[in-house]
Amino acid sequence: MSDSAHPAVHPAPTTFIRKWVFSTDHKIIGIQYYFLALIAVFTGLALSVLMRLRLAWPAESWPWLEKIFPVGFEGGVMSPEFYLAMLTMHGTIMVFFVLTTAPQGGFGNYFLPIQIGAHDMAFPVLNMLSFWVTFLSMGVMFAAFFVAGGAPISGWTAYAPLSALGEVAGPGLGSGQDLWIISIALFCVASLLGALNFITTVLNMRTKGMSLMKMPLTVWTWFTTAILALLSFPVLLAAGILLLLDRLGGTSFFIPAGLVVSDTVIENSGGSPILWQHLFWFFGHPEVYIAILPGMGVASQLLSTFARKPIFGYHAMVVAIFAIGMLGFFVWGHHMFVSGLSPFSALVFSILTLAIGVPSAIKTFNWLGTLWGGKIRFTTAMLFAIGFVSLFVSGGITGLFLGQTSVDVQLHDTYFPVAHFHMIMGVAAIFGIFGATYYWFPKMFGRMLHEGLGKLHFWLTFIGVNAIFIPMHLMGIMGQLRRYAESTEFKFMEPLQPYQEFVTIAAFVTAAAQLLFLVNFVWGMFKGRKATENPWEATTLEWITASPPPHDNFGGRELVVNHGAYEYGVPGAPRDYVMQTDPPLESSK
Amino acid sequence: MALALAILIWAIVLASVALFTGEFGWFPPQISEHGEAMDAQFNLTLIVVAIGFILAQVALGYYVWRYRDRSGARAVYTHGNAKVEVATVLITAVTFVTLAIIGQRVWIGLHLEDMPEDAVQVEVTAQQFAWNFRYPGPDGKFGKTATRLINDQLNPVGVDSRDPASSDDVVTLNRMAVPVNRDIRLTLRSKDVTHSFFVPALRFKQDTTPGLAVPGHFKALKTGEYEIACAELCGLQHYKMKGFLMVMSDQEFEAWLKERAEF
Questions:
Q1: Residue A5: what pLDDT?
Q2: How far apart are CA A233 and CA A149, in angstroms?
Q3: What is the mean pLDDT of chain A?
Q4: Which of A38, A163, B55, B150 has the most neighbouring CB atoms within 10 Å?
Q5: Which of A473, A495, A526 is the last residue of a domain?
Q6: Cβ distance A196 to A126 under 8 Å?
Q7: Is residue A7 part of a domain?
Q8: Chain B residues with CB inside 8 Å of A498's CB?
Q9: Is B191 exposed, middle or buried (0-12, 13-18, 19+ CB in 10 A)?
Q10: Do A409 and B194 touch (CB under 8 A)?
Q11: Cis check: omega of the bond before A161, within 30 degrees of 0
């Protein structure tokens, strides 16, 4: 294993361009991904703030917003097409450019090679390409805001035939939708390159003694996530190409015969809208785990580090990660219970879906087990990890409702699933990203973030997200439908308006609290206290090297791993933690 | 810090439990034959979820407070306990799969049981942003339709008048009448994009997928007027795509149909 680590050693770059722009260093690429995600997340957040504004006060006029958005806020009131464009772009940007890039492309790139003792990824040039294709993809996506007709209004799921028919079906469904599809196709290519790299690196580049079962759980989750990406993104890529052909090439993969849109007869025939849903969700459900699995890895890493205890049930955790990942490929049909899918297959999808609750319960149980008997240090990173567990429980457990055929019927496409997936794949995953940021920032930038500011950020965000998303479940029960620009048209939604206002105010406070994070981040990069090699007294390999690590990660050292990833509180050891490269303990022989 | 976090987590639990007692809003009242079983399954799930949610969050809060760093001995050194893991797997697997299986009864009743012969037939054809309803008339047969005949004003579903079965078909816009306590058999279609026929009071939701004729059925048990909403994003005025379900007595229904037929 140590021999195969050598090919990736490449000399440190000397020019600015090769060092910071077209870098092949996994650490720089990780930081590039992180900054890309940072731009994306604040864009996505701004879009959601605009949406919340309309939902709470649909009739209110905001003349100053008309100055910023002359198209979309005519007369100061947000048009419904603008609302739907915001909705589509919010979902797309958050799912692809934040939740798929930051945990995997960002932290995975930076720390996976270091945590297994490698000098770089297996294919550094491929790694560079995967970032720049992602960058291009984001550029194309953002361009959709500025073309004639604006961004698409078909949602992040882009259900055909709405997404296939072109502008006859609605504004933004012309070139905006084309750019959306091209962007997603590029993103799929980039993710495939990244996934190949991650898998090869884990299998081939581990340093001496780093057996699979000594790997940190973060590495296990990045590895599993890469496998999911490898198997699911090609399907979305194919679906995207077919959809583009339907729009531009006159094919009919998703458009059936006999459609009449706004009194215009559509000449296509033979396609199936359900096919799009199958292909999309065959990708879309694993995508949920692509977003959340790295967060689970981070939570495990942080809980163990700051409880000063080995992770409870390491083997069970590894099995659970794999079980969640693999089961995730057999449940896509639960998004389609009311689509006209065969009612028989719905029965099977339902039972498999609830089965995912089992490995999820194992994970929760083991996180609690890790805290049990610990000596918890309340760093900001730890607070976010504890918050992650709480949100994982709240967000995950409501899957028991939605996974059941008969319960889903009423709740489908209401705010209930919106609350459910925001809680789990949105904010729980974001808490994983925040936890990882507060934990690894010192290693990445050589300086510490401000703990006090970080804690304030945690408290406001944790209270805020609960205040937004828990009432949203109730709104779904009461019948609030999703993707409604306003809920004033229906009597049964009338009682919901006060909830809309409450959620909007909670969202504004939570969004504002994210500025604390931004301030802390920028301050930390330039003014933060200098970080030592191992500020958290942690055990994994990134903590035996300088902060930030040298170009080859370990300064020419070849590492030998003697211990598991989470040896805290070992009786008889000189300190309360045993680093993975520490010499074998006398007592353990 | 530890105590504050524990209290916050417990407060979230309390607030959530209070929110889901029904005091702050709940499902719209239900009026269909299958609705009661559906709501019962929801309530059963709610109990399971509440137990899991409360146990996990209360334990999390307690551990956070109980095991805060107090100077002294090291943490307990353990790598886990295989027996407890196996027990967790068994308990959750049995609970979740049982729940899934119990929930299927309602689904099977909704989708896989034969309809009686005398069910009232209604064809639902969704379009951007309206609901068309068609009744077969006294002959009990829907006339043929053709895409080229569709005209949004004059012939919204494209009924072919040359087909004798079509002469007594009744087509209405955004208003669907059904007799109370009778089986209603629906055929759901769409002219353009995917919509979803949702009647909250009926506990009925079914996508109308272009190119498919999706069957559905229900029995309404209470007369009155109920809103129909579109539940699948269908374009600009998705949020305004409204119809009405009017549940009436048999006589009123016959009179209503007759009136429409003459029109």
A1: 44
A2: 28
A3: 95
A4: A163
A5: A526
A6: yes
A7: no
A8: none
A9: buried
A10: no
A11: yes
| Residues of chain A contacting residue B160, judged by C-beta atoms under 8 Å apart | none
Of B26, B193, B196, the CB nearest to A413: B196
| A9 confidence band (pLDDT: 50, 70, 90) | low
Q: How much of chain B, in percent, has pLDDT values that exceed 70?
A: 100
Q: Is the pLDDT of residue A10 over 90?
A: no
Mean pLDDT of A451-455: 98
Report, as an integer, the average pLDDT of A380-397. Answer: 98
A418 and A349 share a domain?
A: yes
Q: How many domains does chain A have?
A: 3
Tokens coding A80: 């419904």
User: Does residue A420 share a domain with residue A400?
Assistant: yes
Could you tell me which residue, A102 or B111, shows the higher pLDDT? A102
A137: pLDDT strictly greater than 60: yes
pLDDT at site A587: 57
The answer to whether residues A511 and A550 belong to one domain is no
Q: Which domain holds residue A47?
A: 26-271
pLDDT for residue B117: 83
Check A406 against B148: CB less than 8 A apart: no
Asked, for residue A539, whether it belongs to a domain, the answer is yes
Tell me: do A499 and A577 sit in the same domain. no
**Pairing between strand B224-230 and B170-173?**
unpaired
Whether A10 is covered by a domain: the verdict is: no
Contact B60 A153 (CB under 8 A): no
Enter the ipTM: 0.96
The answer to whether the CB atoms of A338 and B207 lie below 8 A apart is: yes
Distance CA(A525)–CA(A389), nearest Å, equals 28
Can you tell me the distance from the alpha carbon of B194 to that of B171, in angstroms, rounded to the nearest whole number? 21
CB A40 within 8 A of CB A101: yes
Mutate to test the interface with B, among A243, A260, A362 (most CBs of B within 10 A): A260
* Domain termination site, one of A526, A555, A576: A526
What is residue A71's predicted lDDT score, i.e. its pLDDT? 87
CATH of the domain at A466: 1.20.210.10
A582: distance to nearest CA of chain B, Å?
18
Are the Cβ atoms of A401 and B60 closer than 8 angstroms?
no
